């Protein structure tokens, strides 16, 4: 069967993306990784660049766990014991002992009753919102929430969707008041850390507002937070936005094992009744293979390392490198959004200039991510730098020198 006409339409859309500077383009292929040596952090090598070394400042591995020997050893041990894949979904025969142990470890880490692992944080969000939304549910969302939340709201088909301007607490309160009498319950959902900008949701204030109006709804207000970029990356002990803001425990917390913990997969923590219901009803959990048993064993080790003296040292070094880079940008006259989080945005506010700067950085051995509309709003085009505990003072200063040279150029 011919797909000629179908593919013509697809090709036209691809060309439109390319012409408007919105195409993501070819993926960079990492061919080799050299672990830290001397005053340098890890160096990455890309297909097509020969032996050119790159400092990776576009990764979510905030603590560098993916390259730590202790974590690698645990994953190898898990693979030897259980094989490289689960071979089935959880409710058939895909649940292994490391899955159970990891869920207990994460529930304890977050001081919750129960935890459910998922294949990714993205599917965690989709599954929670789609499963818990009824025809009598309103969903209220920050305008800059992650794409997974946006798509989850489309999939869930709530009675009403209400969007409030970014961090506008008065507007959030007004959206809640509008919903009184409209629906039986609310789901208020926000990112903990907004991953494009590194700014942090005021969870303490959001919690206060939702609690204020909870008794106005027959089936309560459920406060849900996706803290995938927060957990492990900041807070005194690495427990993310709740810890950083001093917020009470939110009702449902979604996070990931694939960023600060350096492995793969997502998870949900909440009360036992909520988690039990999601195990029974969430199709993204029921019909999807779990992470591998070896990924679970590696994740357990990463959590244990974070909850140790070594973890405290990693967090402190991460804070120092983040502050060094952020202050360096300011000293050079660049615009950023101040935050203690290791996502450090350089606000460019121009699509073509963003693309030019990313190429210049890459040509000089720095990997960073350019973000343009529609990923970010028009006028908010930026380059996202992500600091890691693997970065050294040498790495940070080298990156700042490249940015200084670009500015002088």
* Overall body shape: globular
Q: Widest sheet: strand order?
A: 4-12-11-10-7-5-6
The CATH superfamily of the domain at 103-272 turns out to be: Type I PLP-dependent aspartate aminotransferase-like (Major domain)
Major β-sheet annotation: 7 strands, mixed
CATH fold field value of the domain at 103-272: Aspartate Aminotransferase, domain 2
- Rounded average pLDDT: 95
Q: Which structural class fits the helix and strand makeup?
A: alpha/beta
Number of DSSP strand runs: 16
CATH architecture of the domain at 103-272: 3-Layer(aba) Sandwich
List keywords for this structure.
three-stranded antiparallel β-sheet; 16 strands; 409 residues; Aspartate Aminotransferase, domain 2; alpha/beta; 43% helix
Characterise the protein shown here.
The chain is α/β, with parallel strands linked by helices. The chain has a domain at 103-272: Aspartate Aminotransferase, domain 2, CATH 3.40.640.10. 43% of the residues lie in helices and 17% in strands. A 7-stranded mixed sheet has the order 4-12-11-10-7-5-6, sandwiched between helices. Strands 13-16-15 form a 3-stranded antiparallel sheet, with helices on one face. A hairpin with an 8-residue loop joins strand 1 (30-34) and strand 2 (43-46). Helix 2 packs antiparallel against helix 12, helix 5 (121-132) runs parallel beside helix 6 (147-156) and helix 13 runs parallel beside helix 15 (393-408). The model has no long low-confidence stretch (mean pLDDT 95).
